[in-house]
Amino acid sequence: MKKPPVSRGDIIRWEQQVRLRHMTTRKYLSIDEKHDIMLTDDNEDPKTVFRLHSVLSERDEIHFESYARIEHVLTGFWLHALKDEDYIRKQFRSLDETHDQSMRGLRWDSAQVRQVAASGESMYDDAFTIQHVEKQYVDDFNYVGGMVPFLLNLIKDRDEGIYLNAKKTHTTLTAMEELRKFLLHMGSPVKNRQKLMRNLRGGIGINVAQMIVELIRDKRKIVDRITHQQIDEFVGLLQVTQNYRFLDLLHVLCVCDDVAIPNNQSYIVQRWLHREHKGVYLTARGQDINRQPNILYISTTNGASWMALHEFVDETNPDYDKDQHDFLQHQLDLYKALCFPLCVFVCVCVCVCVHVDACIRIVCTCTGLFVDVGNNYSVLDHPNICFVYDYVGSKDEEKSQADFVVKELVAIFPVLRDWIAEFLQNNNNMVASEVGHNMLIEQVLRLLYHLVKFGYYQDWEDVQQLLPPMLSLLDGRKDFPFPKDKDKGYSKEAMKQVQQYQQQDRYDKGPETAAIVNAKYQALEVLDLLLTYQRNLRLQSFMGKFKMAETTSTARKSQNVLSPLIYDTYNPHDQSKRALKKQKSVVKELRDMFNVSAIFDVELLTRILLDLSQYKYNKLITKALNILNKVYSSKTNMFKLSEKAQASSVLLTQDSSRVHREVLKNMPLLRRLARAKLDAQQVKLMSDILDDLAEFCHLPMTPDEPHPMNQNILISNGILIILFDILVQEIDFKLLEQYAGMTDIFKKTLYLLRLLARENDAVQHHIFERLDILLEVRVVESDLAMALREVAGTGLTLKRNQAYVMKYIMQNYKKLAFVLDLAREEREKILTSPAKMSTLRYYISLLDLLAACAEGENMFIESLCQTILPMDDLLAMLNNPAIDNVLKKPFLRCLHHVYMKSNGSVVDMQTSEIPHDRWADMLTQWRVCCSELWDYLASLSIEMNRLTDSIREDPEKIGIHLKTAPEKSGSAHAPDFESSAYGTVLYILEGVFPFLETFYRDFYFPDQQQYGQEMDETDHLAKACVMFSEIVGPLLFKPNHMKNMVNCLSVVVPVSNMPNSNLEHIMERFASGITVEDTSSAIRRGNIEYYSSEVELNAKFRVFAKNCAVVFAGHNTVTAQLRLKSKRAYTIIGSDEELPLGEEFQSLVRCFIDTHDKKVDKRYGPAAKLLDQLAISMECKRMSEGARMEMDELNVKCFQVLRALVHNEERRLPEDWATRTTEPKITK
């Protein structure tokens, strides 16, 4: 974007003249005399000048992320994005993209590109976003843009048969190496640079295996297009050349962005290892090949000759071959990729080619082949917050937690445990120059991580044995830049270098530091698991405390000190002397419990973690701060987990225990499969699990009735994290045959999410918080719409999420809203034909979703909806007698929320007296559709009278229906009158009554002389509403139905000619027959009775946890929290500014204060690391659901600590400090 004249730069303001330049072609956007969009090289052409207009009222200057409409200065036309015409780039126009599944049909950039035209009118939906591009991205673009011509010329010369001389060859190789380095940073591929290289490639295929590897690494859409024939070619090249680069090529086809590709894994093994052993290095123990026993040998000649492994990797050996050494290392990496994460068939095949030994790649392969496979399931991925009450405090408790841990390595675990302990003891510090050895340490720690994760370290003594050497290994203050001389140690000069390294240099980035950081990061992963282990121990102990308190609560003499805390009558805020004495006893009881289960030296661990946060590696900073937060939140989080448990922490009934066991059995496998590209067998397995879990979420034989207890058991076991991990997977819609299984998985996942959200506020809020993730789901848009509709019906109108949904719909209009672009006749066929039920359901769900988006009275959203939902279309459907009333409800909701609850001029006038001669000036569509609207109102009178007469004959039938949950739109095709009448009753109660209330309150103005027939229709309608309410009112159970009826009558009857006494009469009769809501069917009531004791027990547990948390945190006073004499409160409980209470939080705050320095900038200097973390989190885009939740929690804690640093200083001042700012004591 340039502001004329181009020789001078300045701030651009709204409505100033600018030119728009296309970065790829360097041409300027213009509009010619025929109003066609063009590109031109002439920057002096007046047709290239545009003007930006603000969509929303903003400041004069243009800011990034602003919404703008773009006007062409000469013609006065506006840039208009055609919502139903995607732009197709020239290179793709000749391709059948729907069916082309080859690399040729792949679009490197998946972003939607819209066809742009010039329009004489400014449209509602022509809002363009002005976004900022970082300078580094501009520099990257210019670099790649300059490299492309060089590569094009190289290919052109080759095609024309021009041979390279020595000089040009050297130049070419240098440029290619420079380009390879550009695609990598610190040895890792830079995805944005890869994407640039592909987008600007100009049709180039770089015939270098390594370059191909870097271009397709972690690119799922490319990997999915690699055929078995192409894999055959890669394997053939590998067998012929034995070049490790072809191993890397096969490697990136097995695991893509931490997602396994099982079909590729299995095929590569069959093609490479099963048929023949060409291109494979074999390993064997000496005793198996008549060589020295217990020595590992390697063969590069398919078994014809053997060499001891320690000689093979010895660089001083005369027969050492670096290429063969590299091949072995990359072969071991490929073995690990082939077995990632749970490909049992591959593991069995690969195990014949490798043996476990203590070298870096083999330790890594050992983890991939023998530990992270089979039936080894993680027992520490999720905190255990469900307890079978009968087992609590008994010997069966520990057994019940380990029922589903299958220890396949139990026979050799003692050997592994002792070897790891010895290895860590002998390597309790790190030497920067020994990069290979540090990489070995990383892999040993990774092996340890999996053993801890899978529950092999259950013995307390084993855990205690691990900690000292691992903490020593983590402590960077003990690291050295190079090893000391074995005889003389470090010289005086060397000691200076060591001190310089330990004090400063070890934090800087570099290849040597990277190896150390990776090892320390892996050690932190182990610590993270041990913190979970500690948390589970504490939860188990806390549940035991509760059971003791609950069972002794009725015994006066032997009552436990914690027993009073199980009742909501207990007051934890009481500060009387007697209460404080008892609270002190409670705190001692809880502190003793925490001390018994503590496994860390917190002071030492804090120093180590703060030191690790100083390294200039983002992942280490985040991990260190995350662990620090968990260390100083471990006690508080235990209480929070107990409080948040969704009424299912304590399982008392046999059914709850059975469901819990089934969930525990299925969760580990589901977690493993959640982020994998599944083969047919895995799809079947995962589908069965999802089906079983879905059955748990509703009452037996009644899918519409939620099962709250089972819902919450699933939630407590972390099902939401797994479901969102499944849904974040990318699916290429052009490869639907390949993704057929995943499509079914997505549908079942969304169905389970719907069942979990039904009448569950916690799940609904979680879905709202993750709505941006859900809106990225592809292929199963109709299922997604129905899932969002389940949540949208809760009455929550969050404007941010409504805007997200509308943005998503408009960006994908042709795919999501295709049904709205059909001719009216075709849409009417959908609504009247039983053969098009699936399209009908989608159509209705889409309208419900649009109505829910417009419900929040957002003018911008309403303008978009008015563009795609013309009023005459809505009224035509409402006036069509062939369309069932059940199906008319979403059309009426759209008419109501889009046109009649607008935040625009009509409602802003806040008047009900809107004369007819002003309608044309305010809403043109109202004038055009006025007669159709009154036709609709007249039909309502007839429909309500007919329905009232039918119900009067047997009101009990409708009464039974009104007590149960309504069916979805499928009831529309029911032939019997009973179902049809029930649907019409719901249509009137939930659609018609709210509509009439708004219309007659805000839009109706009686005019007897000119519009007398309207007053007559109003009288008929008021009479019909009263008669309907007299019959149906006493049958109602739902508060919302009662509210809609009362509000409607209160508005319609007074504006009619009916006497108000009729309204009073109906209200009296309505009140006499009213029944307190009992939404439970017989099955639901039976379910409530069955679980009543369990619900009561869980209510006690939540009260107990809440009271314990409050008592343990201390009173909300400056004295209790900061240990200062003051009468001031510490924080405002329940406000947005509330800070956590308790010693844990204050200890965390003190971690970021240098107490030895009195200068403010240096005293609070350590807190800068919190700002660094917040900046790092902004760069994290794609994360698993669990990682996202951890990042959110860490960021919140960073803000709280930063605020507490200021807040604590303010709390130290007198309460009236604001009026005493001139006093030295205050200013100091």
TrEMBL record:
Short name of one Pfam family: RYDR_ITPR
Repeat keyword on record: yes
GO molecular-function term, one example from the UniProt record: calcium channel activity
UniProt-recorded name of the protein: MIR domain-containing protein
PROSITE patterns, A to Z: MIR (PS50919)
InterPro entries in UniProt: MIR_dom_sf (IPR036300), MIR_motif (IPR016093), RIH_dom (IPR000699), Ryanodine_IP3_receptor (IPR015925)
Gene3D superfamilies: 2.80.10.50
One term under GO cellular component: membrane
Keyword Repeat included in the entry's annotation: yes
Domain MIR: 9-67
Top-rank lineage group of the source organism: Eukaryota
Protein keywords: Repeat
Upper lineage: Eukaryota, Metazoa, Spiralia, Lophotrochozoa, Mollusca
Origin species: Pomacea canaliculata (Golden apple snail)
